[in-house]
Amino acid sequence: MLRGFSLIDFRPILFIIGILLCTLSIGMFVPALVDLYYGQSDWLVFSAASAVSLFIGGALVMMNRTDNLKITSRQAFILTTASWLVLTAVSALPFAFSDLDMSYTDAFFEAMSGISTTGSTVIVGLDTAPQGILLWRALLQWLGGIGIIVMAIAVMPMLRVGGMQLFRMENSDKSDKAFPRATQIAMGIAVLYLCFTVIWAVLLWWAGMTPFDAIAHAMTTIATGGFSTKDASVGHFDSAAIDAIITLGMMTGALPFILYLQILRGKVFALFNDAQVHWFMAIAGSIVLGLTLWHSETNGVGFFHALRYTSFNIVSVMTGTGYATTDYGLWGPFAVTVFFFVMFIGGCAGSTTCGVKIFRLQVLYEIAKIQLSHMLRPHGVFIAYYNRKPLSEDVTESVLSFFFLFVFCFVILAAGLGAMGLDFVTAVSSAGTAIANVGPGLGPIVGPSGNFATLPDGAKWLMSIGMLIGRLEVFTVLVLLFPAFWRD
User: Residue 317's domain spans which residues?
Assistant: First the structure.
């Protein structure tokens, strides 16, 4: 042991990662069966990758069994980042050895984009890709979506990451809980998540998709992931009904799942009384209406036509889903600017979305309002509130720190991509879409009509790091880089 550094017990961490790998191996059997049904040879690849995942996971479980599974906050930080990295590395195996002949760099990028629900892709020719690969991409995003909900409810508040302790405070009173125990909450959310997926699959099938496309898009819609089975994304189907169903699905995935459970428990107006939901609806509605009017007047498009495409694509980018029905980069500089800033907003805490998240904007607004009030009345006493409850100084400091680190990481990421030869628009939008986990960037290369296949390998690894940092709320990853974290 080095002087000043303490030895961390990795057994509980490795034990849980082993369980996750065993679960992942079971998930790999689903695309293997699909490929076998469609006569694709990749079923052998999925079967082999499943066996590898099961072997490694089983070995970790057996070698690290312990009677005490309680973990400290330091172990929780390590577990969160390590599990995401290990699951991504193993999830990349089917991509790397499939008939698509992808390099491991591309495979890791695709897997990280999937499990982080980013939606950026390096695969060209999705329309003719094996069904197993298409389903595996959707399944990764579906698993990543439910994983981030559970983390937002059970892990992030405990670790006090970026103001998430606010929701620990909210749920500390038993009368405010949807269920009295955390395990029941997790099970309730899992069942609800599955039910939403089934409902949207049926709706998309009814609207004209094939059963396979309906299932794949339902999974990536509720997960706000954005992986499609078509190169042209949802625009391939050119259906107003499909656009409306997916828009509603993306908004459903962007709202706090804990509130859905409260509705089922009898609190009918739980969703409508939440300030975070009010802000999300107000921001999305205002941007959609404003851009619709501008698009209709400036580009000579009919109002309802403009409303259809604007509402879908704004909600897609704002929630970090990343679906596209048209190349909005061709609408004009104003639209491009709006889409760039919208990608950072995100949805509500406790949802499948990413980005800054609405509650942090609310906290910033309260902080700014207090500062302005102090300027007008220096001796006044003012208290910031969130959801009619006073905000502690601990929460406001965490949120301000999150914003600083989020912007700092974005700048470093954009500069790194620029140093690798990417033009300004491509570098900046790629950095933004990675750290905000959105999917498509801007411009002809990585915009809605392009993909990330032509980027150099270094840029793909850098973006993969950005996706991980953004998905795990910045602090969870960066804290591991501080020597103080490893000291006793």
Answer: 275-486
Residue 69 within any structural domain of the chain: no
Count of domains for the chain: 1
Rounded Cα distance, 340 and 27, in Å? 35
pLDDT digit string (tens) for the chain, length 488 residues: 445 555 777 888 899 899 999 999 999 999 999 999 988 888 999 999 999 999 999 999 998 887 666 777 888 888 889 999 999 999 999 999 988 889 999 999 999 999 999 989 999 889 999 999 999 999 999 999 888 887 777 776 666 666 666 565 444 344 344 444 667 777 888 899 999 999 999 999 999 999 999 999 999 999 999 999 999 999 999 999 999 999 999 999 999 998 998 888 888 888 888 889 999 999 999 999 999 999 999 998 999 999 999 999 999 999 999 899 999 988 999 999 999 999 999 999 888 998 899 989 998 998 888 888 888 888 777 777 777 788 778 888 888 999 999 999 999 999 999 999 999 999 999 999 999 999 888 988 998 888 899 999 999 999 999 999 999 888 888 888 888 887 76
Q: Token pair for residue 442?
A: 């801007």
Query: pTM score, two decimals?
Result: 0.92
Kindly state whether residue 167 falls inside one of the protein's structural domains. Answer: no
Residue with tokens 């390998």: 457
Residue 438 maps to a domain: yes
Find where tokens 């009173």 sit: 173
Helix (H, G, I), strand (E, B) or coil at 390: strand
Q: How far apart are CA 232 and CA 450, in angstroms?
A: 9
3-state SS assignment for residue 385: strand
Domain-located, residue 403: yes
